[in-house]
Amino acid sequence: MDRIFEFLFKYRPLVFEQGDFTFGAPTSVRIWLVVGGLLAAAAVASYTIARGKSSVAERGIMAGLRVMLLAVLVTCLMQPSLILSTVVPQQNFVGILIDDSQSMTLADEDGITRSAFVAESFTPGESELLDQLSERFVLRFFRFSDFASRIDGPGDLTYSGTHTNLAGALDAAREELSGVPLSGLVLVTDGADNDNQPLAEALVPLQAAGVPVFTVGLGEEAISPDVELGRVEMPRAVLEGSSPMVDVVVTQRGIGRVTVPIIVEDEIQILAEETVELGPDGEPVVARIYFELEGRGPRRLTFRIPTQPGERVDRNNARSVQIEVRGEREKVLYFEGEPRFELKFTRRAVADDENIQLVILQRTAESKFLRLEVDDGTELEFGFPSTREELYRYRALILGSVEASFFTHDQLQMIADFVSERGGGLLMLGGQSAFAEGGWEGTAVEEVMPVVLNPPTGGGPDGFFAEVKVRPTPAGFAHAAVQLGLEGEAVQARWDSLPAVTTVNPISEVRPGATALLTGSGDALPAEQVVLAFQRYGRGKSIALTIQDSWLWQMSAEVTLEDQSHEAFWKQMIRWLVDGVPEAVAAVIDQDQIEPGDLVRLVASVGDSTYIEVNDASVTARITSPSGLVEELPVEWTVNRDGEYAVEFRPTELGEYEVEVNAERNGVTLGSDITYLSTGPSDEEYFAPGRRTQTLRRIADETGGQFYTAETIGSLPEDIRVTGAGVTLVEQLDLWDMPILFLLMLALMGAEWAFRRIRGLI
Amino acid sequence: MRRSLFTGPTMAVVALSALSGACARDSGTDTVSVTPLGAEFMAQVAPTLSERPNFVDPRGPRMDPTEVPGRFPFYWTRAIYSGYGRRGWRQSWATDYPKGDQQFLVVLKRLVRLNAYDWENAVPLDDPKLRRFPVIYAVEVGGMNMTESEVEGLRGFLDAGGFLIVDDFWGQREWDVFEYNIRRVYPDRPIVDIGLDHPIYTSFYDIEEVMQVPAIGRTQYPAECYGCVPHVKGMYDDEGRLMVIINFNTDLGDAWEWAEDPRYPLKYSTYAYEMGANMIVYAMSH
Question: What pTM, to 2 d.p., does this model score?
Answer without folding.
Answer: 0.76
